[in-house]
Amino acid sequence: MSTKERLIEAGLRVIETEGAEALNARKLAAEIGASTTTVYTHFGGMAGLYEALVRQTFIRFGEALTAVERTDDPVVDLLALGVAYREFALASPQRYRLMFGVTGLGSGALVAQDLTAGGAPSGLAEATATFDQLREAVQRALDAGRIHGDDATAIAGQFWSTIHGFVLLEMSGFFGTEGHGVTTVLAPHAENLLIGLGDDPEKAREATRRILEWAASRADAAPMPALAADTHRPIDVRRGRRPRPRT
């Protein structure tokens, strides 16, 4: 592993264990036993490092989505991406916040782009590639006649908004720590969205039932540590990290 790769891995570890704002050149250099100048040599400064960390996290996020196998039902496949999305976010909550700029570092400026105007959510190829997987899943559902609409990008944005909003609320503790919100909030919301887009109500309900069973089987096989109560303490959105517990 090159020095640059070691710095990226160390940066991701610090972010996940201590939060994005705990990361600085001195801490990162100490993690790999190097001098602080090493950070500037490889990234030109902390801004360059943050961008590298965001890019790498999106790559891993994309790999998690790609790993989802297709079924005989394009709507089930679409919902399965939402399951993988949530799993990634709960397993790596601090990295997830960094990806979407929900920290005090301004990393959202690296990602944000007007999806409704340009058809892409980001100027970063790694971020756009993850969204393209969602857009392609939507297009398959459109092609199969399960849902209806003229703009796969806009519809993908609707599903993205659904899962992203739910995940942030869940990570902040608004739906508890046991995943109950998936069955009482997320699944019904997704079902309503599908029906609103023209899917047959019975087929939409069946797809939702199948995906809930699949998600439960994955959770049983590999429980997510991020569901522990401590990981769901509300974050201070101004600083991008959770407040310290009172003593």
Automatic annotation (TrEMBL):
Q: Which residues form the HTH tetR-type domain?
A: 1-61
The record's region (Disordered) falls at 223-247
Q: What Gene3D superfamilies is this protein classified in?
A: Tetracycline Repressor, domain 2 (1.10.357.10)
- Molecular-function annotations in GO: DNA-binding transcription factor activity; transcription cis-regulatory region binding
Q: Name one Pfam family in it.
A: TetR_C_33
Q: Could you tell me the keywords of this UniProt record?
A: DNA-binding, Transcription, Transcription regulation
State if Transcription is listed as a keyword: yes
InterPro entries xrefs = Homeodomain-like_sf (IPR009057), HTH-type_TetR-like_transc_reg (IPR050109), HTH_TetR (IPR001647), MT1864/Rv1816-like_C (IPR025996), Tet_transcr_reg_TetR-rel_C_sf (IPR036271)
Name the domain of life.
Answer: Bacteria
Residue ranges of DNA binding: 24-43
Which chain regions cross the lipid bilayer?
A: none
**Protein name, entry field:** TetR family transcriptional regulator
Source organism (scientific name): Prauserella rugosa
- Classification of source organism: Bacteria, Bacillati, Actinomycetota, Actinomycetes, Pseudonocardiales
